[in-house]
Amino acid sequence: MPYFRDRAEKRQLLTLGKRETNFTITNNLNFKIMTKVVNILMVFLIMLLVSCKNDSKIDIVESTASDPFLEELSIEIYDSTATNLIDTNATFEILAKGFYWSEGPLWIDELQAVIFSDVPANKIYKWTEKDSLSIYLESAGHTGPDNSGSGEGPNGLILDQNNKLLICQHGDRQIARMDADLKNPQAQFTSIANTYNGNKFNSPNDLVMDRKGNIYFTDPPYGRPENKTGEIGINGVFKVNPEKEVSVLVDSLNRPNGIALSLDEQSLYINQSDSGNPVLYSYDIKEDGSLENGKILFDFLALSKNAKGLPDGLKVHKSGNIFTTGPGGVHIISPDGKHLAAIKTTKSTANCAFDSDQNYLYMTTTDLLIRVKLKL
User: Fold this and answer.
1) Which residue from 251, 266, 305, 259 is spatially nearest to 281, judged by alpha carbons?
2) Where along the chain do its domains lie?
3) What is the set of active-site residues?
4) Which of the two residues, 211 and 18, has the higher pLDDT score?
5) What does the entry list as the binding residues for substrate (predicted)?
6) Is 312 annotated as a binding residue?
7) Which is it for strands 74-77 and 92-97: parallel, antiparallel or unpaired?
8) H-type helices in the chain, by residue range?
9) Residue 184: CB partners within 8 Å, gap ≥ 6?
């Protein structure tokens, strides 16, 4: 989730309602002075609102039919098997826009909603067909004294086996479980893992859980000062077992990022968001939970020369194919590394998620939440 690479501070247009104010004019000079004071105060208020990113208005898109950005979205098929997954004329929808860096989408059946992080804003949003966009949880990734918008908020999101929300928290540098019920979210957390060998993690980025309850997660240096490793000294891939014991699985990757399991949970897929070596790795999972036979499943270097973005979040489709973000959008890669298709967003795309029926793919694309129709 290297949102700082291409993030520019976005200024939201805030509209101030005009109010009619009745003045009793007893003196023309007093009226002019009062008018000037009011104008100065109004200008100050506008500047204050615009400069405050945490109170910026998010543009909720009710209709996407006329949005010019839709014309930039497209599907490219490279292998005929991809036509079983998506059509070249598949329908795109822009659901909401105006975020700082949208990440970590997660479909929650219980809410009939997709939730997702806005990392710099330190918030998790919720989108539903019925109610459109709303703030789901504030102070979601950094709960310290200055927790409103540290730039190090929440990132990857999953549900555990008890239907509790697990969050990669950049600011608090841990994997945490939200204690509250999904329908009544509260910024109250229990730490699942926050150190390895007594040293704090860098900035946990993305995570996945297997059927045994083991959590696999990546810990790159994003959000760290000058983008360097912290006290832990490595950019690692870790596993947390149900007893909360932490083990390091990989310590050789420069920028480990998105992570996913194959359908049979015999392979672990890891994206590396390194501009000099942007690749998707595949590792075999041994019986004891360690990894072996690491190999490059797909190399994004050639694609990165002409498109924005790097490999980031990824999800595995029920077909076994991998929907992974990468240069230019989301790429569909087969389990043996064949490039089947590309969902081209033309923007840096951070992550993606399916709904429960895999009828739609939701994509967090820089400042946007987008979805595209898939084949069932």
Assistant:
1) 259
2) 59-373
3) 312
4) 211
5) 103, 205
6) yes
7) unpaired
8) 28-51, 301-304
9) none
Question: Residue holding tokens 């075999």?
Answer: 284
169 closest CA partner among 150, 145, 196 = 150
Indicate the DSSP class of residue 149: -
Decide: 325 and 314 in contact? Cβ < 8 Å: yes
Is 39 flagged in the annotation as binding?
no
In this structure, the number of other CB atoms found within 10 A of the CB of residue 248 comes to 15
For 26, 34, 60, 126, 355, the CA distances from 131, given in Å and listed in that order, are 50, 43, 10, 9, 17
Sheet (strand 351-354) strand order = 59-60, 92-97, 368-373, 360-365, 351-354
Q: State how far Cα 349 lies from the chain centre.
A: 9
From the list 354, 356, 257, the residue with the least C-alpha distance to 315 is 354
- Amino acid making up residue 168: C
Strand, coil or helix: 249:
strand
Question: What are residue 108's DSSP bridge partners?
Answer: 113
Q: Is 103 annotated as a binding residue?
A: yes
Structure tokens at 376: 């069932």
Tokens of 323: 């929907």
Would you mind telling me the total number of residues written for the chain in this entry?
376
Task: Please say whether the beta carbons of 201 and 155 come within 8 A.
Answer: no
155 in a known ligand binding site: no
Residue with tokens 């008018």: 35
pLDDT, tens digit, for every residue of 169-205? 999 999 999 999 999 999 999 999 999 999 999 999 9
Write out pLDDT tens, residues 236-275: 999 999 999 999 999 999 999 999 999 999 999 999 999 9
What does the radius of gyration of the chain's CA atoms come to, in whole angstroms? 22
Q: Which residues pair with 199 in a beta bridge?
A: 196
Rounded to whole angstroms, how far apart are CA atoms 270 and 312? 9
- Helix %, strand %, coil % for the chain, to 5? 15, 40, 50
What CATH code is assigned to 59-373? Answer: 2.120.10.30
